[in-house]
Amino acid sequence: MAFPETDPKRTVSELKELREITGDEDGAQRVAFTETWSRARDWLKGKMAGLPVETHTDAAGNLWFTLRGESEKALLIGGHIDSVPDGGWLDGCLNVMAGVEIMRRINAEYAGKPPITIKIVDWADEEGARFGKSLFGSSAFSGNLNMDEARGLTDRDGISLPDAVAGYGVDFEKVKDATEGQKNAAAYLELHIEQGPVLLDLGQPLAVVQGTCGVERHRIVFKGQAAHSGSTPMNRRKDALLAAAKMSLEIYAVTARNGGVCTVGSCITRPGIVTSVVAECTITLDQRHIDAASLATMLAEAKSASERFAEEGGVTVEWERIWQIAPEPFHPELIGFCEEAILETCGISHRMPSGPLHDAAEVSLAGIPTVMMFVQSLHGISHNKIEDTLEDHLEMSVLAMDRLAGKTMEWILSR
Ligand SMILES: [Zn+2]
């Protein structure tokens, strides 16, 4: 199944146009709740102007385009036109613009009245670049937004998040009214650049995203004894850093056994002077896995290794959880359709989890069947002006998403 009306080259040229009007020599500048972001949204509205769609901004500032169909059951296609400062030209807006092209095709195919309703959503402030809180609009939509935390956030100039969003017509205390958007939502699809090197290394253009990874984030404190670096023989030391150093090696073995990724991202020693054995060493551990049981095993293995290293070195160890989130697996049937769509488009497909969180995770948490598709990132780099993807691959991603939308529409109708 392919749709001859779909013009993926138009998507690429529109993305270039958006880059032209909202970027500079340092990259994309569409930070949410700023003038440039608002200009990008006006441009987007202009692109939709020729279609018989209803446009509205919900209580959280998410921008919706609705093509009403015979049924109120709706297929949602989402993305985010906001960027980080000095961002890339594809992150977030590829998703939206692919959605626009798919909406055009569906409108043409069904002469303005598809069998189900089609909605495109541009989520507000996915990046959280200004207030340090990502997924603002989609977490308001899912109902998961922590109001107390968000209410207290301020930007670099001391402007509070509630004040900033008020300037764009959003009453902060009512943002969770955006949960109304869940009504009749039958499925959600999101395309995104991979933002990492996996597809690049495989030499493949597209992947099915199985879900977003669960995360375990911990602080691990080893305590030994400070001692003179000249007078203390090696066999008499209680060296807290030694145990921590063994941990930083061990996480490679843990991931070799279980998959996933582990990072020791910080290491602080005390007293931290050149003439003393380390008395106390604090490291952080970030573990991510798509499978909850494997994530639990990774954590258990890391804990038991830390106890073993502590005992070997005559030091103690304590763990403190900083944050955790469960894996959010996407919908199995939609994963199947996504794989078919990719195979029909480029003959080869890959399945992978997403390490970063995306708006799609919030939609899935709201109980709406969800799947994402990744397209290869050149350099494996994002949130940087060098972020790029081959135009061929961008076009394939639009065609594959279009096929996925077709399959998902049929599925919604059949339920
Ligand atoms: Zn993004």
Structure description:
The protein is α/β, with parallel strands linked by helices. Helices cover 38% and strands 24% of the residues. The chain has twelve helices and 15 strands. Strands 3, 4, 5, 6, 7, 8, 13, 14 and 15 form a nine-stranded mixed sheet that branches. The longest helix has 24 residues, at 391-414. The chain is elongated, with a radius of gyration of 24 Å.
Associated small molecules = zinc ion
Q: What is the typical, i.e. mean, pLDDT?
A: 96
Shape: elongated
Topology, number of strands: 15
Report the total helices: 12
Main β-sheet description = 9 strands, mixed
Through-space gap between termini: 21 Å
The stretches of 5 or more residues where confidence is low (pLDDT under 50) are none
What does the oligomeric state look like here? Answer: single chain
The percent range for helix content is 25-40%
- String of helices and strands: HEEHEEEHEHHHEHEEHEEHEEHEHEH
β-strand percent reads 15-25%
Helix/strand class = alpha/beta
Radius of gyration: 24 Å
